[in-house]
Protein 1
Amino acid sequence: MPKMPNPVIVVPGIIATYLRDEYPLPPESVWEVMDYSKQYERASLHPDNLRFEAIEPARVMPGQLYEIAYKELIEELRHNLRTRPDQPVPVYPFGYDWRQPLAATSTQLGDFIAEVISRTLLLRHYDGDAAYKKNPRVDIVAHSMGGLVVAGYLATAGKSHRIGSVVSLATPFQGSYEAVIKVTTGTANLGTSPPSSREREAARLTPALYYLLPGFKGALTVPPNSTLPASLFDPSVWQPSVTDTIAQFIQLRGLTPSNAKPQAAALFSAMLSSAKKFRDLTNSLSLKACGLEEDDWLCVVGVDSTTRTQLGVSVSGGKPDFDFKSSDRMNEWGKMPPEKAELTGDGTVPFRGAVPSFLPKAKLVCISPDDFGYWELQDRVTTKLAGFHGILPNMNMLHRLIVAFLTSRKDKHGNIWGRRAPGVTAADWAPPLAGLEDKT
């Protein structure tokens, strides 16, 4: 009997897990992705302890995943990974508190992996599979920030991890400018709700957002002869209004309001430092050191959508100020030279922000909005609302591609494809699955 497919865990992106306050009976929802009356005050974190909420008593916990983005993906995996109807392959959603530092979420993922394996071994067809019992593993399908959570888990666990294969979809391994915009203005392609001052205030005290800051080479342009550092992880390049808002929040909710300004500066610096430490960790990830091969990771990158691909900072009145120019949103996909073609993305994550340090570009599989099929018109409508990045997990072709990768079974219709990253030749392209049509 062939070895059973590994159970699968789907790890969503930022803001894609509902949040509920379990202190009231019955529990009350405080964050729903499509709910325009999000309770920002109840979801805001306490400046004296970012593990907990600013308004206590409370106990805000993760709930379900955003069904529009992930339900179809999960159902397709559950249906197509199995070889027999009476032998289901478990596919578990991993809901997590997306506000929290990714290091903590990575640890929670490790605990969840152990739980999923234990539950899977209670199924008779897995208990009877000697090969699986000897070396139980899970496969991971991660979208957006979820891929960073997985990379952090692997970098920390090393060879003690229990992952077989990974699929990452549009993950900002090197960051997205939308995180900068969300913190600075409250608007960004990270969600579906209209911007508000309440959202901006909550964002500035959301540690996870800082883990998404762009950190690739040339991510931030500083004025010539400026003493400003060209790093978004340095607090000195940020406009003072960010720490001013945090200080105001400390005055409102903090335990020592008289010390608001220095406490705000220290808190902001600590969040940036923690995010930079995690980015350094994921950038140092070696698949080989974890006992994995490059072909164990399918990295899907969204392209051919107008995306913010660069950002400059100016100095006004002796203070830094981000220069959000509309001309920095571009889509040069397909242009030459290859460096120019990299000025694209999925509408949220720029191509350069999506390239992981632990995989060569020859392994990347690029997809575009044109890969939505004719009958996916509803997906196209939803794309206008949530953006290509947000609805990318709904793509039917991508479902087939993921199943082919996780099972090593060729798509029976030969109907999977992808595109090469800029600068990668047809001869050099080496995606981690056979039978992939090159639509470059």
Protein 2
Amino acid sequence: MHHQAPDSELAQSANPVTPRDVTQRHKFVRKIVTLIVVAGAVVITLYVWGIVERHPRTDDATARANIVGIAPRVAGQILKLNVEDNQQVKKGDVLFELDPEDYRLVLEKAKADLATLDRQIAQAHSTLQRLEPLLPNGFTTADTVDKARTAEATLQSQREGALAAINLEELHLSYCKVIAPFSGRVINLNISAGAHVTTGVPVFSLLDTSKWYVVANFREAEIRHMAAGSEAIVYLSSAPNQRFRGRVQGIGWAVKPEGEIDLPPSGVPYVKRELNWVRVAQRFPVRIEVEDPDTDLFRMGASAVAIIQGLPRK
């Protein structure tokens, strides 16, 4: 007995699927997947480019703080050195003391000169008081009285100078104790007690740890996306998982052109370009003040990454 085959079987037998058809289908699917991947990559690239364009970032940045050279206002020999290199100090701490003996002797001499002058003034005043009553009766001359008055006035004016000299020597004596002008950290201390120091020449430096900022060098095409007041994010290379908020304080308006000899020194910052043999965009320093610095992490000159969040809101 012969059974009739179903319609589906007849269709399959009539149009059999060949290996070539399978290969073509696979190629088609691969093309579709490739197009989707390429389109996705383009979209992601454009999206990332838009983010980078609107929020410039650079790893050409360093942490900074203000530094003041601690220089004595008088010369002398260091009698006591109260700090060590890298030590944290507070405002008003005595950093070091100079031998005050020479300045104390000068002050004592100035006081002795004043005492001598006061005795001379008293004597001149007594002489004038004695001569003035004699003038109406003709027992002295007007010229003699005038000379006595002039002598007293001259001594009085000399007394003002003597008082000023005492005040100055007292000031010099007080300068023998060198005080920390602000809280910070001692750096570059390479001297010991007994050394002779000179007026105005720094003995070491004091790093102001109360205020930190980052100087970030951005390409000239990127600075149009930032302005004073722009919010920023800062990362330190030593602590990449910790971010710090910041705000653009200002954008540099001048850098020394590549290859220009800075003679005489102009004080204009120099930002080295990445390649010397290819013309690359100039970079300008952008100062970002850090709002929440961790003083245990921030160090002068530490490498950093800066990201600008965009132009400030109006």
Protein 3
Amino acid sequence: MQSTAATSTITATSGSPTIGAKGWVDTQPLSPSVSEALGVPARTVSQQPPRQVRGAEEVYAAPNVGRFLVLAAELVLLLLVFHLFHLETRSFILMSAVVFGTFFIHYWLPFRFKEPFWVTVSTGGAFLLLDPKVATLLIAVGLAFFLILRLPVAFQWRVLSLGAIFAALIYGCATRGPSIPASFYPVFGAIFMFRIIIYLYDLAHRTEPPRLLPFLSYFFLLPNYYFTLFPVIDFQTMRRTYYQRDIHEIAQQGAHWMVRGTIQLMLYRLVVYFNDPYYLPDRVTSLGALIATLILTYLMYLNVSGKFHLVVGMLHLFGYDLPETNRRYLLASSFSDMWRRINIYWKDFMVKIVYFPVYFRLRKRGERRAQLFATAAVFLVTWALHSYQFFWIHGQFILSWPDTIFWGVLGLLVMANVLLESRGKRQQPYSSWQVRALKPVKILGMFVAMTTLWSFWSAPNLGAWVYLMTHWIHSH
């Protein structure tokens, strides 16, 4: 599941929208840092003087032999684990070796050469990890996008030109014509299908033209050639967090996240081992077997969160101090809390592209109405974009009742959560001991709800899910 997180609710205090770092509703004003990360237009945030970026970045990139050796040893051990446990395919081992080897050189380069070197390796890596024809076509299309965006014409004409290219490629993906290799479409989609939306949104809200180096560093990321299921990285966040603190701290956090991702992928193997690789509800002959099946089906998401941690951890090695992709989603205590945890990048994507535009358009008609309509829009777009993503990977759109009902029910539950939280603010808050006592109950309730919904979403059709849930009763 690429995008299982949809939105973050905002409310208003003293007439200003707020966004909660730990909740859907917060009482603090929208901070400039959050707004910059989400790409909110400048009029919605207070202006602050720019920090001296370049000098700080160069200081943060200063090398240290001892700390480098520690990082190098950790990466060598990680690569050894990848190899010994056959964590992924040989292409993954090769990609990881190239990434780590690039870091060993990148670390010692003068600061002004670091990003150009990383971009050069990432772009050239396409020819190592992909078919040469696919790599050539991929880079050619990317450069064509950049040249179109640099044209001295109105922005809407540039967008329409990109849309025409996308339409032609969508037709090619649907018909699988012989002129373009079939393996081109999943990689193209993994790189451009979502990030081009973010890039165009950010480009529309700034006056400076696009620059080649940031463009290439954003789209042509070496791990993306292998991972077609890729976190939706925000362009502004990627640029803003570049060497925003000491490189050893950034890289060490990346190593930690890669270890976490490795552990999650190993746990995923256990889940696959104990769970049916195919949808076989006939084997669910008892209540215990049903519970185990529901839990194991939900835990299949470890495959996604594990890969996301590996990807972002690798990017940390090159100074991109990106935020966490998933945060203890099994401990979510509400549906809104789940969306804040299970895919943070998708949540930020939806807040930026869908939630904020709808909310600010409707807020004059009432805060609650704006929140509910914006939340509904987020889930509608999420449902549509899941089908869009499935199309690029498999060549056809996914339109099924389980998928439609899953996102519809989830959207309604989150909207109900929004109403409850907005009303709860006006009521007497719980005491600290009541909050601590209720928290485990809420976590367990959310886990049960999500395992049930997830099993429904994973079913091929409605009848198969009903059969899965009831077969154990009729088998006695």
